[in-house]
Specification:
alpha+beta, Jelly Rolls, 17-stranded mixed beta sheet, 4 helices, 28% strand
Length: 315
């Protein structure tokens, strides 16, 4: 073979190899960029949102003291007004506290006094609210999309909601859980806590209730009676739901800003309260010391008077 042909063949092979190597390197760079974009999307939450829409949950303080604990810390922050809620937030009402939670324009939930509710998950295809103690009353519009699911958990039962008017209670002292359906919809309720038994599902129709008591072995649905005391709160939720018409979702950045402002404002207020409490405590300590000194002086004076009285009688 002529030398020129050999040289041309070698040059052609070298060019092909270089081109293939460059193409492979470019493809690796593209894959690497894609993986980086995917990781950033998963960290920011955009990836999960593209897979499933989340509820726009908002908390509104109606009256009294309402506290919120986020996943970032173990401290409770006092909240006033309204505040966007995120998954893993925990809302607690005190003995004088009443609050409401709104889900888009599709649901209104009232939290009673001495209630603790965890926002376990807000994905519309598997939203979960965990009632740790207390009571809630909800008015939820019927879900036309069958993929939308909402559950309310207590330590004793799980309620599957499809669109209904209902109330749930749980007592930490008696370990009882009571569930009721009012004038619309139905609930599928499953008892939990008995690991050795098969879970049984109970269907609550309109104006019925059920009570799970650890002391009982058999349970049955009954006409609405004891849980009927929540009808007043239900009427309020019906009105609230009507006022949510025209709701528009806020952007993620706006929600984060509102949450930050709400929690930061409460921290500053708490610090100011702590600063004001110290002088009061000091004044209180001085007052106690002064009172003790005055009592001691009076006691000494009385003792002196008693000692002088026998001496005068002896004279």
């Amino acid at each position: 073979m002529p030398i020129k042909s050999i040289f041309k063949t070698a040059l052609f092979c070298a060019l092909v190899s270089a081109g293939a190597g460059a193409f492979a390197q470019e493809e690796d760079m593209d894959n690497q960029k894609y993986r980086q974009m995917l990781q950033q999307a998963m960290k920011s939450g955009n990836y999960s949102q593209s897979q499933g829409q989340s509820w726009d949950a908002r908390l509104k303080v109606v009256s009294g003291t309402v506290l919120v604990k986020t996943i970032q810390g173990d401290e409770w922050s006092k909240v006033t007004g309204e505040m966007p809620l995120d998954p893993n937030d925990v809302v607690k009402t005190t003995a004088d506290g009443i609050a409401e939670i709104y889900l888009d324009d599709k649901g209104a939930i009232a939290l009673g006094r001495n209630t603790e509710l965890e926002i376990t998950d807000l994905l519309q295809d598997d939203a979960v609210f965990s009632l740790n103690v207390g009571s809630l009353v909800a008015k939820i519009k019927h879900f036309l999309n069958e993929k939308i699911k909402l559950r309310v958990r207590t330590p004793a039962a799980v309620c599957a909601v499809r669109g209904t008017e209902f109330a749930v209670e749980y007592s930490q002292m008696s370990k009882e859980s009571s569930i009721a359906v009012f004038d619309e919809g139905r609930l599928a309720v499953t008892q939990t806590g008995d690991s050795g038994k098969d879970a049984q599902e109970y269907l609550l129709e309109k104006n019925t209730e059920i009570n799970f008591n650890p002391a009982q072995k058999r349970f049955r649905t009954a006409p609405l009676s004891r849980m009927g005391r929540h009808r007043g709160a239900l009427g309020t939720m019906r009105t609230r739901l009507a006022t949510l018409k025209g709701w528009k979702p806020k952007s993620l950045s706006k929600r984060a800003e509102l949450r930050s402002q709400a929690l930061k404002r409460k921290v500053i207020r708490r610090q100011l309260q702590d600063g004001k409490a110290k002088p009061k405590a000091m004044r209180g300590t001085k007052a106690v010391r002064g009172a003790k000194a005055l009592r001691g002086a009076k006691a000494g004076k009385r003792a002196k008077t008693k000692r002088q009285a026998p001496a005068e009688e002896a004279e």
